[in-house]
Amino acid sequence: MIYKGLIEKYRKFLPVSDSTPVISLNEGNTPLIKASNLPQQIGFNGEIYFKFEGMNPTGSFKDRGMTMAVSKAVEAESKVVICASTGNTSASAAAYAARAGIKCVVLIPEGKIALGKLSQAVMHKAEVLEINGNFDDALNFAKELSEKYPITLVNSVNPYRIEGQKTAAYEICESLGEAPDYQFMPVGNAGNITAYWKGYKDYNKAEPSKYALPKMMGFQAAGSAPIVEGHPIANPETIATAIRIGNPASWKTAEGARDESNGVIDKVTDEEILEAYRIVAATEGVFCETASASSIAGLIKYVKQGYFKNNKLGKAVCILTGHGLKDPDTAVSNAVKPKKVKANMKDIIDAIGF
Ligand code: AN7
Predict the structure, then answer these.
(1) Distance of alpha carbon 183 from the chain centroid
(2) How many Å apart are CA 257 and CA 264, to the nearest integer?
(3) Is the CB of 30 under 6 A from ligand 1?
(4) How far apart, in whole angstroms, are the C-alpha atoms of residue 72 and residue 159?
(5) Is 256 helix (H, G, I), strand (E, B) or coil?
């Protein structure tokens, strides 16, 4: 059967009917890539897999939620969608709204958006408003606007977003033929950890003998770690701008996922994030964005801490939520610069080091 996106594939698990107009870019069905070098390199004697969500149509996992949220908005005859965003949500909302032929308004924190994400929002003709505040401020405005005007909010407080995003857990279960033992993932506004946990619980409920429940291991950036610190962060900071969020909307459900699964929500420093970001690109050929690398940084941290001495080794899935090409500036400024070489064979050979 030709793949037509996650709504068609998982229709029976989703709140859609035959009359729901399906707005899709064939999102989902992303690769689950087994790590070949990383386990040995970091001293993890189990199996590591990457769920490469950067392979979605707009380059991030947000497309899973957006196909649902925009389809349901169109079903409800909404003509405008709005979101606050650290970048990826706006890129995705803009693309799906363009496809649906409806208007999209995005509120983004000024100067803190990776250029690739901004380029997507403007190319898809969203109304982009840069506000001189952070993501949390922007989300408050977007919520208020959606309450006062006929505008549909498509942030992850929209329950259809969570429904769409939970399908990534289904795909992991199907690819492995079982649930993983651990899922490592970034946590920002905390919608995605909420969604994955829901997805794993769905499959566990349907076939408990086949699909166990993984431990949910969520990681915030150290400068933006409200759930870890136990209070909102007024001025969140991190190089991983996608998760520069101080007051997550899905805080409680993220804690629920952590506690029900016997998992953790912890933090990783920007240095740990950058290190993981470089390692996975250099040793596995997988280029993810910095926020995504916090999943791998978390795994490395837990290996170093000796967590797996007391917990069984097994299958660990790291969710790589967005593509590295979203933010080439961060890549180029954190990697070795290209050598400048004169255009003659001798200099080129010398530079290669033959
Ligand atoms: C690459 O785009 O919040 O914990 O406004 O872009 O579900 O918020 C993005 C979040 C992880 C965190 N990785 O997911 C937005 C936005 C990437 C992201 C997250 C985001 P949540």
Answers:
(1) 13
(2) 9
(3) no
(4) 10
(5) helix
Q: Is 197 helix (H, G, I), strand (E, B) or coil?
A: helix
3 state DSSP class of 314? coil
Over residues 321-336, the pLDDT tens digits come to 999 999 999 999 999 9
Q: pLDDT tens-digit profile of 190-242?
A: 999 999 999 999 999 999 999 999 999 999 999 999 999 999 999 999 999 99
Enter the DSSP assignment of 12. G
pTM (two decimals): 0.97
CA-to-CA separations, 145 to 9, 75, 83, 156, 301, in angstroms, rounded: 33, 20, 10, 16, 41
Kindly give the number of the ligand 1 atom that is closest to the alpha carbon of 292: 13
Residue 60 alpha carbon to ligand 1 centre in Å: 9
- Residue whose Cα lies nearest atom 18 of ligand 1: it is 242
- Give the single-character DSSP code of 337: P
Residue 290 Cβ inside 6 Å of ligand 1? The answer reads: no
CB 43 within 8 A of CB 56: no
Ligand 1 within 6 A of CB of 109: no
Half-sphere exposure for 19 (CA within 13 Å, toward CB): 3
